[in-house]
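Annex B. Sample input.
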Amino acid sequence: MATQIGQREVFNNARRLVDAAGLSTSATVLSQSYLRTEVAMSTTTTSYHIPILVNDNQNGATSSYNTSNLLNLQDAFVVSSILIGWGAPSSATDTAWIPQTYPNGVAAGTQAIATALQGLYSGNLSVNINNRQILTGWDTLRHYYVPQTQGLTTPLTIATSISQADLSENGFYPVEPNLVFVGSKNNQVSLNLPAALSSVPANGFGRIVIIFRGILCQNATSVR
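Annex B, continued. Sample output.
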């Protein structure tokens, strides 16, 4: 459970890390924030490029969805926790959807597709910053959270199609030591799967969602 004491420690860590990165905390504003990056699911891809910066266009038109929140070049971000989930919005611009923390058959459309999406939890996240390997293998399984109350497509008695979840913590995993993304650096993040997903949501808008929570350091770099 998030506490004020825990958040204070995150803030103090952020100040130390920003100074260690050669960025002055006296010239920047530090505040709680998040990065949200999304990539389209594919049945042919085993390594997904995860955009971090606002000018990253490696994934083309899907590098920044309207529900994304990427890092400005003049800012830095200290990561304290990560969520790796997925979603199935109804269109490329839909905002009325919630990231899922497990292969939910209701959100996926069918149980067969939900079963295929279990493949997301057999992979790992890697981070390379300025050609230095920072994170070699962050397993995605630590983000697999199945709630006690789950949505059902054909309830036997009384049920709801909305699964129980507290996204202040469910599916999020703390990062220690903290990661530091700097807008002026080359941040390369990859989600690597042992095999391509055999099936994805049928409407073609299925996405992998990664949310980084932590401390935003505004105007921390020399980029203006």
